[in-house]
Every structure is written in C-alpha cells, then in structure tokens.
Amino acid sequence: MNRRSSVSSTADLAPQPDAPAERRPVRERLLASADELFYREGINNVGIDRVLEHAGVAKASLYSTFGSKDELVRAYLEGRHQLRITRVEARMAKHASARDKLLAVFDSMAELLSTPGFRGCAFLKASAELPANERTQPVCDTYRGWVRGLFTRLAGEAGVPDPAPLVRQLVLLYDGAAVAAQMDGDTEAAKVARATAAVMLDAAIAAKKTTRAART
C-alpha cells in the first residue's frame, strides 16, 4: 500500500469556476479558501486572517457575510455534506436495484479516497477539533444521520426485514474505509469494505428467504 502525497484539499469539493478569483463572489471565495485551509491544516490551526489573505477579501466582508468563524466553519461543513450527497446520488443513479444502490455508496467512497489530497473524513476531523460546538456539531450530526438513514432505507428496500443491526455494521465499514485510507494509505480500503458489505447484505437477505421458507 502506498501513502499518497496530499497536495490538494479538493477531495470533497466541486470543480471551481475558471473565472479569476477576484471576479468570483466574496462568499464563494471565502468558502473556497476556508474549505482548502480547514480541511488541509485543521480548523483550529487556521485563523480568520489566513482565510482572508488566501481569499483576498477584507475582514469586514467576512463578518458581513458569515458573522463569525463558527458560521464560516458551519457553511464549510454544509458544503461538504451537500457535495457528498450529490456524488453518492450520482453513483446510485447508475443502478436499478436497492442492493446495487447500497453498494454504490461504497463505490462513491472509493472514488473519494482516491482523490489527490484526501486527508480523512471532514466531519470526523471537525468533531474531534470542535467537540460539542453548538454551531458546527449539528452539521456533523446531520451528516451522520444521513449516512445511517441512507443505509437503513436501502437495506430495507433490498429486503432486509430488520435493517438496524446490518446498518451498524455498514456504517462501521464506511467509516473504517476512510480511516484506513487516511492513516494507512490504503487506497483499496473502500473496495474491501464494499466486498464485505456485499457479503453481509446478501446474507441478511438470504436469512429472510430462509425464514419464509421455514414458515411455509
């Protein structure tokens, strides 16, 4: 396994416009700079002045747009969440069955982990840096709820009668792939997680069929 060099922080970022930075809206410039710096160097390690210098905007613009650093962090995390949703839904749209859609979530993770500059889960990092922050933690909680809810819905649609135990296992696989990629440089982690998820999902579906057969 080879550890990738992290030269960019665009792991969960949408492509940026080609327009010169000074012609882009102030909010967009601030968010792009915050995303790059917060993700690459850590939220607590990056002060407002660094973001302002990187974005090329005045301090008054930041406070008139976001009000505080906490609000900028919240917007950064919300942007990451929305892009994650978009990427996962794009992967799922390529498949018809709930089973394949569920496994496509891991395909999306594999794509993310192979992106230059991947440095781990932005939400895990934010939770570690800003525990119990009343402005930013709810965004992390929303993301976690989305992951669990997505797996729960797809597992149920795939035919798992009681998805809860399986969902806990799938979330652990999903999280573990990101940690292995970040800490071990394991670029195949998501593929291993996907293969494991397929075995577990198929076993849960088969158990339902076996139970039905026994009752008849």
Automatic annotation (TrEMBL):
Superkingdom field: Bacteria
Key word Nucleus present: no
HTH tetR-type domain ranges (all copies): 24-84
Pfam assignment, any one: TetR_N
Ranges annotated as DNA-binding: 47-66
Entry's Gene Ontology molecular function annotations: DNA binding
Record's protein name: TetR/AcrR family transcriptional regulator
Protein species of origin: Ramlibacter agri
Organism lineage: Bacteria, Pseudomonadati, Pseudomonadota, Betaproteobacteria, Burkholderiales
